[in-house]
Structure formats: structure tokens, C-alpha cells
Amino acid sequence: MDSDSKPEGEQILEVGEFYQLLTAQLEAAYGRRFPRWIRGEVAKVYEKTHLYVDLVDAGSSANDSKRPVLNAHCWATQWNALKRRLASEGITLKPGAVVNVFGYVDLYAPQGRIGFTVTDIDVSGLLGDVARRRAELIARLQAEGLLEANKRRPLSPVPLRVGLVASPQTEGYNDFTGQLLHSGYGFEILLVTTTVQGDGAPAQIVSAIEALDAAGVDVICVVRGGGSKGDLACFDDERVARSIAAAQTPVFTGIGHTGDESVADLVAHTRAITPTKLGEELAGMVAQWRERNVRVPAQRLMNATEALLDEATEYVGERRRTMIFAVRDRLRSEQRHLVSVRERLAIQGRFVLESSARMLASSRQLLAAYDPHRRLTQGWSIVTTGDGTVVRSISDVQPGDLVHVRVSDGSFKSSVTEKNGVPS
Amino acid sequence: MSTVGEWSEAAGELNAIVASFDEGEVSVDDLFAKLERATTIIETLEARLDATKAKVEELAPRLARVVEE
């Protein structure tokens, strides 16, 4: 048939009529009542209240001028809910992402465009993509030895100077700092404020870690309370992971809730499951150090002091008692000695006196035996010369000498007439 | 009478005096002098001990707080 000629009896349609017909035909097959799932790769995405996204065949070349494009859009009424869901899963629609969209065809006559109204987006494919990229990142970090790098950093036994990467006044910040403040220990917190979610967060977190690393704190704590996977996605960022691995200071993480494990957690020196637990862990470390280095030594010091004083008191008391007894014993010993000597002297004195008495009596008897008077009465006489010399030999006198003769009852004078010796 | 030395020195001197008594080396003439010296040493040690105890009593609550915290 010649398209240039009008067939007999066929109605000629106005443009508007034609669009009405076309719309009716499309709606009858692909309209609101017949929604379909379409798979496509995001070529362009634009959001202004509503979402506008161009989808193309996955893997097709942008240079292919004939590749089909589906101009999809999602009205704000649906998009706001979908957007929250995507964010909670950590998904951002970006060029290159392959998505399944559910919706229906519409025709926009003023621009002569066929569009696609999206009412739902299947994120399972995107989730798989996120997981794959995360696994690839972990594998790269592992291959480079970066998962263990920060774990090898020496940790102060008393990490009191705490560098904190957090957003103030958030629940995670308050939970963490509350634990430190209520511990009673002198934690010094050096805060570098960052956002902890969103596209700008990774760069800020990296900058904060680098600043605190240079500040010479004992430990850097990266803290963030619970949130959706999307909220926590910045902690799966490669830049954050690499900055933690490169830090010379041990980096501790307390991110999200129990069960959340970010790449930052894997790279960190120490990971706590929540900000509260991280605060508890730091306070516990200080408590353990204090127990070992302060409380136990103090207890030992008290015990040793008490024992030393008890020993010294006992010593002085014992020496005092010993001296008293020693002196008393010594004096008693001397006293006993003196008594003994005195007794010995008394016995000896009596003996001497008795002996002397006996000797005196004997002498007296001997003296009596030699008493001249007694001899004179026995008939003996004592002859003396004129000068009183006792005449003991005939040689003491000469004939004619006048001698004096004493007898028992008196004396008389006599003259020597003759000397006769006694024959021997 | 010479001054009493440091604790260990004083304790050594005191022990020597006690030992001389134990061994019967103290004459009666020396007894009073030795007893007087021993008494001086003991009183000095007791005074030092009391002073140290008083200081320890002052510090003990502070140490106890460290232990009990």
C-alpha cells in the first residue's frame, strides 16, 4: 500500500486524536492496570522532588546511538517511600547500577514521549552488587595486609587521651562519652566533629582520623550510633578503611548496633559492637591497669606497712621485756653470788677462829710448860751477872765475881769461888 | 650518752646489749650504764615507732580510698 495516498473510507485522525488512540492502546496493554517489571541499567538519574531516570540495556554502549532508552520517572508520592527504603539498604541510584523497576507505560503527548512510571524498585540485585563490592574491598585490603595493619599498632595500657571521631549530640556520641565520663577516670577527649552518614561523611572521617593521628592521642575512637545500612554505608568506604589502616594510632570502632559489621570494624585495632560497649571497653582497660598498677600495689603497701609496724612494735616490746628480765636475772645472780660468798666467809671465819683458839690454847699450854716461876718452884734458879746477863756457861763468870741468884720465893747474892766444867 | 642511731643501727646496738646480758658479760659496775643505754634506745625506738604510726594513720585513709574505689 502506498502510504502517501489516503485509502478509501479510512478516517484521518488529528494528532491529538491519534495520541488518544495510542494512549488507549498502550494503556490497554501496558497501562496502569497492566504494570510490568523492566530491567535496565541506569544511564542518567536526576532528582527534583520526583525521580527521573533513563534506563538502557545493561552493558550496552553509550556510543551506540541506536540503543533504546526508557525515560522512567517516579513521582514524589512513591519516590519518597522508595528513597527511604533504598537508603536504609545503603543503596544510591547511580549511573551503572542495574535495577528492576516495576511500573507502567504512559504517553506524554505534549512532548511526544513514551515514558515509564515507576511504582516499585527491586533492590535485591543492587544489594548483591553492594555486597560484591564490599567483599572485593575486603579482599583487596586483606591482600595488602591492611586488615591487620592497625591491629599491630602498640596500644597504651592506659588510653586516657581519646581522639573521638563523631557527630556531637547524637545518641552514639552521648552513649560513648557518657561511659567515659561516668567511669570516674580522667579521660581527655579530643573531638573532631564529622558527619557520620551521607556522601560527605567518608572524606570528613578520613580527615578527622588523620588529624587525630597527628595529635598524639592514645587511641582514636570512631563512633556512630545505630542506623540503617545506608546510614552506616560511609563506614564501608574504602577511603575510611585505608585511613584507619594507615593510622599510627590504634583505632577503635563503636559503630551501629549489635550485628552491624562495617569494613571499618574489620580494619580497626579493636571493634566494639556499640558506642556504649566501646566506652565500657576503654573504661575497663583503664580499670584493669589501675587494678594492676595502683589498687593491688596500694593494698600490698598497706599490708606491708601494717606488718612492718607490727613487727617493729613486737620487736621493741620484746627487747624491753628481755632487758627487764636480763637485768633482773643479772642482779639476782650477783645477789646469789654475794650471799654465797658471805656464807663461805662465815664458815671460813668460824673455822679460822676455832683454829686460832685451838692454836692459842696449845700455845698457852706450851707457854705454861715453860713458865720460869714454875721451874723455880721445882728447885731451879736463875743466875745473872751484875749487869743482869743470865749466866748460861761457866765461861760467863770468873772466880770472885759476885752473882745474883733468883729462886721461887726470892733472891740472894753469891760469890763465885771455883769453876768446874761438866765432863762431856 | 651518745645519740641513738638509725633504726637498724640502734636495733643492732640494742641486740648487742641484750646478747651481752645473755652471755653473762655484764659486770655489776657496767649493768646500770648498759641498762640506761638500752632503755634510752628502746624509748627512742618506741617514740619513732609511735610517730611513724601516727603518720601512717594519717595516710591510711587515703590509701584505703585507692584500694576501695
Keywords:
heterodimer, A: 424 residues, alpha/beta, OB fold (Dihydrolipoamide Acetyltransferase, E2P), Rossmann fold, five-stranded mixed β-barrel, five-stranded parallel β-sheet, 46% helix, B: 69 residues, mainly alpha, 2 helices, elongated
The proportion of residues in beta strands of chain A is 15-25%
Q: What is the number of independent domains of chain B?
A: 1
Report the span from N to C terminus of chain B. Answer: 50 Å
Unreliable stretches of chain B (pLDDT < 50, length at least 5) are none
Give me the strand/helix succession of chain B.
Answer: HH
What distance lies between the first and last C-alpha atoms of chain A, to the nearest angstrom?
A: 224 Å
Radius of gyration of chain A: 69 Å
What is the H-and-E element order of chain A?
HEEEHEEHHEHEHEHEHEHHEEE
> Biggest interface: chains and residue counts?
A-B, 24 and 28 residues
The name of the CATH topology of the domain at 141-288 in chain A is Rossmann fold
Instruction: Please describe the biggest sheet of chain A, giving its number of strands, its sense, and whether it closes into a barrel.
Output: 5 strands, mixed, barrel
